[in-house]
Amino acid sequence: MSVTTDRASVLREEEADGALGNYDDDDGDGVEADGEMGFTDSLSGEVKPRILLMGLRRSGKSSIQKVVFHKMSPNETLFLESTNKICREEVSSSSFVSFQIWDFPGQIDFFDPTFDYEMIFRGTGALIFVIDSQDDYVEALSRLHLTVTRAYKVNPHINFEVFIHKVDGLSDDHKIEKQRDIHKRANDDLTDAGLEHIHLSFYLTSIYDHSIFEAFSKVVQKLIPQLPTLENLLNIFISNSGIEKAFLFDVVSKIYIATDSSPVDVQTYELCCDMIDVVIDISCIYSLADSEAGLPYDKESMAIIHLNNTTVMYLKEVTKFLAMVCFLRRESFERKGLIDYNFHCLKKAIQEVFDVRVKVQQNRKLLSQRRWSSLTKTNAVLSSPHS
Ligand SMILES: Nc1nc2c(ncn2[C@@H]2O[C@H](COP(=O)(O)OP(=O)(O)OP(=O)(O)O)[C@@H](O)[C@H]2O)c(=O)[nH]1
């Protein structure tokens, strides 16, 4: 059972107009249509970062979006129809996990005059290029090169993320070999073009396991300017509490937005995801219908799991959509009072970071609105010089 199909995080789904260059204006105010959107973006650096999903047809872009943000089961993606329009969606479950995802059809043509790629890349935070590892990837690599070079020219601040996707069908050796080959060829192409300074990050992903959530977590983390502060807070928290590993999770998407500086291993990450599922599912089944608007996750949410290898997993609510999940030894857990006290301090500090982030976002929005209104005034004067 999954509560998350009722999407708290997905505020709305919009489909861009059939012609690639013309985007639907969701509220009818004209601001998000055509060139205007790009112009405001360039001034304000849009409050919500934009993440683009690009790649050849059938590489798995829509499946990734549906599995990560709509909790679609991987098998259901077999029935997804090919995307023929740009699909935009806002993901906004907390101030830290707040962005727009644009899912592109596989066949976009940069030379199509109706495709305003400058406008699109200008407001982009991360470009995820999906390569089907089970297919011949020569064409995908040349497409990747074209896309990255175009995007970089318009906006050198974009994070370029390459998902070597559908690796579930490959053996471990084969996966590493594919990654090495794709990594080498993509970087050789950039070096040949004199663009070796462009950095590409590579991830092995599949919708059939947690790798896609882990990869998405890393993409999203890079878009959180407060990440070093959050990491520092977690480092202090674990060292003061005798904890071995701590994650800060967005419970809706199961994206972890920060962890301490010790390395992350996949099994640990998977255990955290399973724990969040268990908490939400049990809460859905047994929580009182009238408790806090019937939400399955609230201030009281907490769980302790004793693993059979002397490790304890401890989950606690941080904010409405964030949870801390940590791993510690049974002996350390005996000092639960100290852990809870330190957690209380951590929670307050995270709340402060959160408040600062909200303030910065509000200021940026205000600034952008002011600039926009002064610009429209100037335009009005210019267009009626005799008034
Ligand atoms: N084995 C495997 N198949 C996958 C994976 N991800 C997606 N697929 C399958 O790949 C096929 C194409 O997926 P889509 O998500 O429609 O691909 P797309 O890139 O959005 O395709 P277009 O809309 O045509 O651009 C579907 O049959 C999915 O079930 C994966 O991780 N592993």
Automatic annotation (TrEMBL):
Belongs to the GTR/RAG GTP-binding protein family. The keyword Cytoplasm applies. The keyword Transmembrane helix does not apply. Residues 23-32 have a biased composition (Acidic residues). Keywords: Cytoplasm, GTP-binding, Hydrolase, Lysosome, Membrane, Nucleotide-binding, Nucleus. Residues 1-32 are annotated as: Disordered. One of its GO terms (molecular function) is protein heterodimerization activity. Guanine nucleotide-binding protein that plays a crucial role in the cellular response to amino acid availability through regulation of the mTORC1 signaling cascade. Pfam families: Gtr1_RagA (PF04670). This is Ras-related GTP-binding protein. InterPro entries: Gtr1_RagA, P-loop_NTPase, RagC/D. PANTHER family: RAS-RELATED GTP BINDING RAG/GTR YEAST, RAS-RELATED GTP-BINDING PROTEIN D.
